[in-house]
Every structure is written in C-alpha cells, then in structure tokens.
Design goal:
Shape: globular
Number of helices: 14
GO molecular function: rRNA (cytosine-N4-)-methyltransferase activity
CATH architecture of the largest domain: 3-Layer(aba) Sandwich
Structural class: alpha/beta
Protein name: Ribosomal RNA small subunit methyltransferase H
Keywords: Cytoplasm, Methyltransferase, rRNA processing, S-adenosyl-L-methionine, Transferase
CATH class of the largest domain: Alpha Beta
CATH topology of the largest domain: Rossmann fold
CATH superfamily of the largest domain: Vaccinia Virus protein VP39
Catalytic activity: cytidine(1402) in 16S rRNA + S-adenosyl-L-methionine = N(4)-methylcytidine(1402) in 16S rRNA + S-adenosyl-L-homocysteine + H(+)
Radius of gyration: 21 Å
Number of strands: 7
Strand content: 5-15%
Enzyme class: transferase
Length: 328
C-alpha cells in the first residue's frame, strides 16, 4: 500500500508522549484522536511494544488504509469510526482510561492527493471537502447557497483572508451563471477576483478560502474546545495529552485551554468562592509550542506551520470552564 502522508513532529511526539515513567502502567493505552493513515500510531506501536492504541477517524476510506497498515499489531490496535468529540463525550465503558491522547489536527495529504473530494485546487474535483461524505453540507453547498455577507464572514473568520469581501462578491457573481461545482472552477473565480500582485504571493490566492471552507464544512473549530475538555476528562491522572495544530485559530484554542488547566484556580469568574480546590489540574510540559526542525521542513513541507503542545494531567474533577477559549 502506498503511504502518501508523512506524520509531522514524529520524533517530538514519541519523546514528549512516551509511555515511560512512574505514572504509567506496564501496558499503557494511547488514543490517536486523528488516526489518518496511521503514521504516528505505527511508530508508537513499533517503539513501545507494551502500548495499545485506539485509533479514531471520521473518514471510513482513510481508516480502511490505516487498518491495512496496522494489521501487523493485531489486538494491540483498535478502531473507532466517527468524530472524536462523540467518542470522548460518551467514552466506551469497555476501555480503560487512556494514558496518552494525541490530536493531530492537520488534514492528511491523502485527502489532498487521493480523496477526490476537492480539498486541493490543483485538481479538477467535485467541491465536497467533507471528511465524512455521508453527512452535512458540502463545500459546494456553502459556496452556492450562503448569502454574500455570510460567505465573506466565513472566509475572513476561518481563513483569515483580508480580501474576503472581494472574493465573496466574485463568487456570488459567478454562481449567478450556474452552480460552482468543482475545485478548479472555484479557484479560477478567486484567481480572477484578486489584484495582480496578490496572485503571485508566497501562497496561491485561493489557499485561505479553501482552508476556510474545509474548516466550516467539517466543523473543525466548533468541535475542538469541547472535545479537548472531554478528552482531558477521560485521561488517566498522570497521563499526557498532546495536540498538533497548523494554524493560529486552532493553536489559540489549545493554548488557552491548556493555560486554564495549568492555573491554580480554574473556576469561572462568576463563582465567588473557589470550588476547584485551588490547585492546577495539569502541568504544562511545553511552555512554548514545539516547532519542526529546519531539516523536517525541508523534507516534509506541510510541517512548516505545525506546533505541538503537551500537558500532563494532575487530577480529575476539572470544571468545564472554556471562557475566552470558544470564539467560533
């Protein structure tokens, strides 16, 4: 089987999330919240023979590839097909609590190169972008049905695109002549909408719009805060949780939530008297996010914007306080 995705910050994940130490059982359990083709999990299982892994993924197609790749590990490997926030919100009673949790929030190269769902503007594919293609609205639905103002807001908020209003206006004008159904067609509309000097910048002018549509279609930022909180609740005290992000919107959510867990008091502001015991719920292991080395960026360019943040859980009974974290 051809593997097209290279896991980012792999060595750093193996080091910071290693199932070694006083707080770890001899047979630790790891949950890979975003299994993809199984790159991180494969290397964890290879390096740590006593480790078992539950791999989560909403995409049945890419999970089938992971099952084939990870078959050699037998009953050390378990699979869950569905969204990670659903898994953590209703953690299966047949599993013990995990010692390690990993979120790799990047979209697999497989989706850009092999899925044929319009994630990339380099190919002429149906404009879908759903990780689970059997549910929810597609990118084409948003592009063709959202009002101009809402479309502009979406592109600005999720893509941080400064020309969002200009691009949204061009999309609305173009769809008046017929639905925009392909990734190539949308990319051409965006290309023609922006000024000449913007077309030849460091990234293609459609990059941020495509990112915004993908995030919106899959509810990536809306799912994340509650998923982090529920995952932390499932984590065994002494266990570690690591999150890899790829853009500032994700990283802000993770940074703020981890910072709250590391405070001496995490009660909401409206609570007059501390109820959480006045002690931190987690130790922040990475005071600054871990970035890829220059060597990794050279051989795996998608890693260039990756950041890894890791915490160790100190205690249970974490108040659900995400004030200032959810802004989407």
């Amino acid at each position: 089987m051809e593997i097209v995705h290279t896991p980012v910050l792999l060595n750093e994940c193996l080091e910071y999330l290693s199932p070694v130490g006083e707080s770890f059982e001899s047979e630790a359990l790891m949950i890979d919240s975003t299994l993809g083709e199984g790159g991180h999990t494969y290397n964890f299982l290879k390096k740590y023979p006593s480790l078992s892994v539950i791999g989560l993924d909403a995409d049945k197609v890419i999970q089938a590839r992971a099952k084939e790749r990870l078959a050699e590990f037998g009953d050390r490997m378990h699979f869950y097909n569905g969204w990670f926030q659903d898994f953590y919100a209703d953690y299966p009673s047949e599993y013990k609590r995990p010692n390690i949790i990993l979120f790799d929030l990047g979209i697999s190269v497989f989706h850009y190169e092999k899925s044929e769902r319009g994630f990339s503007f380099r190919y002429d594919e149906p404009l879908d972008m759903r990780l689970n293609s059997s549910e929810g609205e597609s990118a084409a639905d948003l592009v063709n049905e959202l009002a101009e103002e809402k479309l502009a807001d979406l592109i600005y908020l999720y893509g941080e695109e400064k020309l969002s209003r200009r691009i949204a206006r061009a999309i609305v004008e173009a769809r008046a002549g017929g639905r925009i159904e392909s990734s190539k067609a949308l990319a051409e509309v965006i290309w023609n909408a922006v000024p000449g000097n913007y077309r030849y910048g460091p990234i293609h002018p459609a990059t941020r719009t495509f990112q915004a549509l993908r995030i919106a279609v899959n509810g990536e930022l809306k799912r994340l805060p509650k998923a982090l909180h529920d995952a932390f609740g499932c984590l065994q005290p002494g266990g570690k949780m690591g999150v890899i992000t790829f853009h500032s919107l994700e990283d802000r959510i993770v940074k703020n939530y981890f910072r709250n867990l590391g405070k001496q008091c995490v009660c909401p502001p409206e609570v007059a008297v501390c109820r959480c015991g006045g002690s931190a719920c987690a130790e922040i292991i990475t005071r600054k996010p871990v970035a890829p080395t220059a060597e990794e960026v050279k051989v795996n360019s998608p890693s260039r914007s990756a950041k890894l943040r890791v915490i160790r859980k100190i205690k249970d009974d974490t108040p659900y306080h995400l004030d200032g974290v959810i802004g989407f």
